[in-house]
Amino acid sequence: MSTALIILAAGKGTRMNSDLPKVLHPIAQAPMLAHAMNAGRALDPDRTVIVAGHEAEMVTNAVAEIDETAQVVLQVQQLGTAHAVDQARAVLGEYDGDVVVLYGDTPFLQPDTLERMVAARHTADLVILGFEAADPGRYGRLVMDGDSLERIVEYKDASEDERAITFCNSGLLACDAKMLFDLIAKVGNANASAEYYLTDVVELARTEGHSVTAVACDEVETLGVNSRADLARADALFQTRARAELLDLGVTLMAPETVYLSLDTMIGRDAVIEPNVVFGPGVTVESGALIRAFSHLEGCHVSRGAKVGPYARLRPGAELAENTHVGNFVEIKNAEIAEGAKVNHLSYIGDASVGRATNIGAGTITCNYDGVMKHHTEIGANAFIGSNTMLVAPVTIGNEAMTATGAVITKDVEDGALAIARTAQVNKPGRARKLMDLLRAKKIRRNKETS
Ligand code: UD1
Ligand code: MG
C-alpha cells in the first residue's frame, strides 16, 4: 500500500526555554525532526509533509537539508493536533493511500513499529499506536473493548476510572487519507482545552461503523522530548543504542561508553575505536581502520587500514586513503591524503592534496589563509616535507621533491628538487663561552648595585 507521512512539528516547546524550535534541537548531532523523518523512511513513503508553525522558516530550512523531497505546510495558530493534520489537507486531501501521522519530537520510534501499524491496517480502518505506561501521567488514555479501540480520552477530560487506565496514546496513527480528512472535518473543540483533538477521530470513526484498533509498542519508543533534561536523556539513550549496534556489526569499541556517535556515523567491521573519540556528523570509517584515543572527527572519510590519532582532528573534507597515518596533534581539513601517506606529528594540512607515500614532517603547516581568501597546496607523490616547513599557499610541491627542515616555501618546487628556504647557519668558535662570561659578570655587577 502506498503511504504518506505527516509529521507534526508546529509546537513551540516552551519548556526547552530556547529560541530554537523544539524539533530542531539536536540528538546525536542531528535535529530531533531528522530522527522522526528517518524512522518514517522505513515505510518508503511517497510523500512526507511536515506541519510547521513556531519558527516555521527555520524548520523549513532544516527540512530542506534533511530531505529535499519533503514538503512543509504551515499551521499559523496551534489550535490542536487535529487542526495541525488538517493543514496537510491541501497537499494530501486527495491522496490515494494511507496516511501515517507522527510527531517531530518523538525521536525513538523504531521502523518495525511503523511497519506493524501499517500491517494492522489490513484488519482495521484506523490504527492507533499505544503503549503501556509505567506512569501514565497526562497522556491520553485508550479505552479498549477487546481488540477494538472505543475512544481516546484526554487526561484533562477523563473520569477517575478512565485515568486509572495505563494503556496510553502515543499520538501516532495510520488511516486511509480520504477517510482521515473526512473525520477531521467533523472534529470540534468542545473540550477542556478548547483544542481540536486528533484523538477524537477514533470515536467519530466508530460512530460511522469503521473498525479501529491499537498496536502496542515499548514505552521508550514514544518518549517525547519536552525539556533540556529530556534532550540529554534522549541523547544518552541514542548513544547506548548506537554503540550496541556497532558492536553487533563487528566494530571494536575499547571503552564503548566514552565514544560519542552521530545519527549518520558509519563504521565498518573490524575497525577499532579507542576510548574518548567523538564522531561529529558525516563520518564514514572503513573496515579495519584504527581511530586512537581522544580524536575528533567530522565530515570526513577514513579508508581501510588507516591509522588516526591519538589526539587527531579530522575536519570536513578530510579524505584519508588506505593505509594513511595521521598522528598526534594533527589537524586535517578539506584535504586528500593519498594511499600510504603519513602526517604523523603536530601538523595542519588544510585545503591541500598530499600524494601517495609522501611523508609530512613534524610541525608542517599549510598556510592556506591570507586573511581574506583560502588557497590550495598541492603535494606530489613520494615527496618528503621536512619538519617545520611552512607551505605558503597557493603552492605546488612536485613528486619526489623534498623541502629542508624549517623551510618557508613560497615558490613551487619541481619534481625531484630539494628546496632550502632558511638563513644559512654560522658557527662562531669560542663565542658561546665568551658570551656566558660576559653575562655572568653583568649579573654580578647589577646585584652589587642593588644591595
Ligand atoms: C497528545 C495526544 C495525547 C497523547 C500525547 C502523547 C491529542 C489531543 N493528544 O497530547 O493523547 O497521549 O500527545 O505524547 O492529540 N502540535 C502541532 N500543532 C498543534 C498542536 C500540537 O503541530 O496545534 C504538535 C506538537 O508540536 C507535538 C505534537 O503535535 O509534536 C503533540 O502535541 P502536544 O501538545 O504535545 O500534545 P499532548 O497534549 O502531549
Ligand atoms: Mg506532548
Structural class: alpha/beta
Total beta strands? 35
Q: Give the biggest beta sheet.
A: 11 strands, parallel
Proportion of residues in β-strands: 25-35%
| Gyration radius from CA atoms, angstroms | 31 Å
Residue ranges: pLDDT <50 for 5 or more in a row?
A: none
Bound molecules: uridine-diphosphate-N-acetylglucosamine, magnesium ion
| Overall pLDDT level | 97
Coarse morphology: elongated
How far apart lie the N and C ends? 98 Å
- Helix share of residues? 10-25%
| Count of DSSP-assigned helices | 10
Short descriptors:
binds magnesium ion; 29% strand; 451 residues; alpha/beta; ten-stranded parallel beta sheet; elongated; binds uridine-diphosphate-N-acetylglucosamine
In short:
The protein has 451 residues and is α/β, with parallel strands linked by helices. 23% of the residues lie in helices and 29% in strands.
Description:
By secondary structure, this protein is of the alpha/beta class. 42% of the residues are buried. The strands form 6 sheets. Strands 13, 15, 16, 18, 19, 21, 22, 24, 26, 29 and 32 form an 11-stranded parallel sheet that branches. It starts with a strand and ends with a helix. The protein has 10 helices and 35 strands. Helices cover 23% and strands 29% of the residues. The model has no long low-confidence stretch (mean pLDDT 97). It is elongated, with a radius of gyration of 31 Å. β4, α2 and β5 (71-74) form a beta-alpha-beta unit. The chain binds uridine-diphosphate-N-acetylglucosamine and magnesium ion. Uridine-diphosphate-N-acetylglucosamine (UD1) binds next to β1, α3 and β10.
